[in-house]
Design the sequence.
């Protein structure tokens, strides 16, 4: 059955005719570059809702040009532990969902994020073209460049004549750089109804993609002692910073207990003045592990360490947090989608390789929803999350073609739909 369909569609849409459908991409580089500079110059740090809204408006304009239906979803406030150790909530920006052909049974999800890691008061705020052919600036690679590549590839796909039976779900969130707490339930709901997923995180400068991804969790430990004057009533005080130091020691000792499981104590804070025994201190940490078993192990090891630990007389430690990015393993279905991208790259003369990484992104969450997802379809670039971030300008059309041809291969039947592979 499948072999028959394959040969029929191959006759209809052979290699040369699919490549011919990519012609509209030629010459789009300069416009994309100009738009990317404008988008990079608008700060959209996850906490800068006003800036995120500006990018949301621009993205809505760009994807509306494709004729897609636009939905804007307001996110619920998410729980967080403030610098004072108190539980509070924080509001994140919206989710944008652009849809084409809502009744199509074969659906492709393309996802990205509007936010960056750079706060509104960061000194890194402007994009600059450099002589070496790179665009240096905040979000150029991660991932405003990727959003524009996605839009351009979809513009080509929509003109191809092959899109009629394929549903498209573009979902853009505003909190990817702060763990997607507010957006992941919605994104996973959309992902569950789709057949192939692409996320537009940057590829490496040499074009390599991220394959299997580690999972990740964030935890906060609030340590509470008792305040007292350091001179008059020192003995009545219970030093929360000393307690936090014991918490750090106990948690850090979990490193090395299990292969490829790491805990990074990333932040500690506490105390008010040098003449006050500190009442409160906070320890924040991030964990990484490669398999669901390892993630479950480290989660329960942290819980056990905090609930059963002794951190000093009259000192309590309260744990918050969880695994928020499940591990994303390489599966036969995912491998099949990677092979589709590799074959598109082969037709284009663009070598496509992938390697496992300790990093994670929304691709992890889409995978949890059962969606085979290649999540580094964005521009080539490097030094993301730093002031050296750049995107390679010559990769704009190259990566647009790679995405467009991958979509066309799926739509034409030349490539296998990954969910048709036994899982
Ligand atoms: Zn990103």
Sequence:
């Amino acid at each position: 059955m499948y072999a028959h369909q394959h040969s029929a569609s191959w006759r209809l849409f052979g290699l040369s005719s699919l490549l011919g459908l990519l012609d509209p991409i030629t010459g789009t580089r300069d416009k994309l570059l100009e738009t990317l500079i404008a988008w990079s110059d608008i700060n959209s740090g996850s906490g800068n809702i006003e800036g995120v809204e500006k990018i949301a408006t621009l993205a809505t304009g760009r994807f509306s040009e494709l004729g897609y239906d636009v939905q804007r979803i307001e996110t619920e406030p998410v729980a967080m532990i403030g610098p004072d150790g108190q539980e509070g909530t924080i509001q994140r920006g919206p989710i944008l969902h652009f849809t084409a052909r809502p009744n199509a049974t074969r659906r492709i999800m393309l996802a990205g994020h509007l936010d960056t890691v750079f706060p509104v008061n960061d000194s890194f705020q402007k994009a600059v073209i450099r002589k070496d052919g790179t665009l240096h600036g905040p979000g150029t690679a991660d991932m405003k460049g990727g959003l524009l590549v996605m839009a351009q590839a979809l513009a080509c796909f929509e003109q191809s004549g092959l899109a009629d039976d394929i549903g498209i779900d573009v979902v853009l969130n505003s909190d990817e750089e702060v763990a997607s707490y507010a957006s992941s339930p919605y994104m996973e709901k959309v992902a569950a109804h789709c057949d192939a997923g692409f996320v537009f995180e940057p590829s490496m400068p040499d074009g390599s993609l991220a394959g299997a991804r580690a999972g990740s969790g964030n935890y906060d430990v609030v340590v509470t002692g008792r305040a007292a004057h350091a001179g008059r009533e020192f003995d009545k005080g219970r030093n929360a910073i000393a307690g936090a130091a014991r918490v750090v020691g106990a948690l850090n000792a979990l490193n090395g207990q299990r292969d490829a499981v790491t805990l990074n104590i990333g932040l500690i804070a506490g105390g008010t003045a040098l003449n006050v025994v500190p009442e409160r201190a906070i320890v924040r940490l991030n964990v990484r592990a490669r398999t669901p078993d390892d993630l479950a192990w480290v989660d329960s090891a942290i819980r056990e360490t905090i609930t059963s630990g002794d951190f000093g007389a009259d000192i309590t430690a309260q744990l918050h947090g969880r695994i928020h990015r499940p591990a994303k393993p390489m599966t036969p279905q995912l491998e099949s989608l990677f092979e589709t991208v590799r074959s598109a790259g082969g037709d284009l003369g663009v070598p496509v390789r992938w390697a496992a990484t300790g990093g994670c992104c929304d691709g992890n969450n889409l995978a949890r929803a059962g969606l085979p997802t290649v999540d580094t379809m964005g521009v080539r670039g490097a030094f993301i999350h730093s002031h050296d971030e750049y995107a390679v300008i010559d990769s704009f059309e190259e990566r647009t073609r790679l995405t467009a041809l991958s979509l066309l291969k799926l739509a034409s039947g030349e490539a296998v739909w990954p969910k048709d592979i036994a899982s």
